[in-house]
Amino acid sequence: MQMALDEVAAETAAAGGRATVRTYRWDPSCLTLGYRQDPATVDWAFCEREGIDVTRRQTGGGGIYHDTRGDVAYSIAVPAADVPGKLLDCYHLLCDPVLDAFDRLGIDAGYVEESVPELYHPACYLRELHPAHDVVAGSEGDSAPGGRRKIAGNAQYRKRDAVIQHGSLTFSVEAERHLGTFADPPVTPAEFGDRVVGMDELVDVDREDAVAAVEEALVAWVVGADDGRDGVTLDRDGSWTDAELQRAEELVETKYRDDEWVRARPGNGDA
Predict the structure, then answer these.
(1) Per-residue model confidence as pLDDT tens digits over 67-99
(2) Residue 147 confidence (pLDDT)
(3) Contact call for residues 98 and 92 (beta carbons, < 8 A)
């Protein structure tokens, strides 16, 4: 349902309706595949046995395991006219509240300074880390090889006249379950832990406070400094309309929960 709601939010923004910023929780836990990801990279039996949903995102990149407790998810859907036209400029703008959330939690996070080689291409968190877009956290003296470790996966796509960016912020690393969703990854849980870090490893915080920090950062980003961004109003208690929920249900049945669509491989070349 979450990917369907993201798409609905984009449709609403594209049609001249409101923009949407939100946090959400995956329940049950879910593996989301990149748009062109090969379904053969999934351990379908493991996911079924462990009660892990599998769906496909509209965004590209590798698969991400969203643990019900270990993952904090967010999405931003805005009219395309309100954000930069260049992909990377837009990406950095929409990542500003993510970096602010980490700062509010006392976590030293930022874009990785140097490229780090990939460990396993099908998994987003184990792909090459690139200075342009990969967010890492920790200290330069971190004992993990290469120093700071990846803490967030963010991706973006455009749908007609709207931009949607969604992301996974790691609250707690669940290495065995994350790796278990993939078919025979050549990476051990210890190696996964050397690449990925959770908020709970870096600071003393519970999940509720981490979510609150992300929500506060999103609010501050929307309204601007001192609640002073001209022409912007924020409905903190906003909810989906009946029409939006009906549209989301349609998308769930015809796309995001449809086995044929999820297990197909649209296009090619992004395993």
Answers:
(1) 999 999 999 999 999 999 888 899 999 999 999
(2) 73
(3) no
Q: How far is CA 39 from the centre of its chain?
A: 19
DSSP secondary structure string for all residues of the chain: -HHHHHHHHHHHHHTT---EEEEE--SS-EEEEPTT--GGGB-HHHHHHTT-EEEE-SS-S-BEEE-TTTEEEEEEEEEGGGS-SSHHHHHHHHHHHHHHHHHHTT--EEE-SS-B--S-TTBGGGSPB-TTT-EEES-TT-SSTTSSEEEEEEEEEEETTEEEEEEEEESS--HHHHHHTBSS-S--HHHHHHHB--HHHHS---HHHHHHHHHHHHHHHHH-GGG--TT----TT----HHHHHHHHHHIIIIIT-HHHHTS--SSS--
Nearest to residue 66, comparing CAs of 110, 96, 33, 42?
33
- Output the six-digit token pair for 218: 């999103």
Give this prediction's pTM: 0.88
Residue 227 neighbours by CB distance under 10 Å: 11
Per-residue pLDDT for 229 more than 60? no
CATH code at 2-262: 3.30.930.10
- Give CA–CA dist 170/202, Å, rounded: 11
Residue 239 neighbours by CB under 8 Å, 6+ apart: none
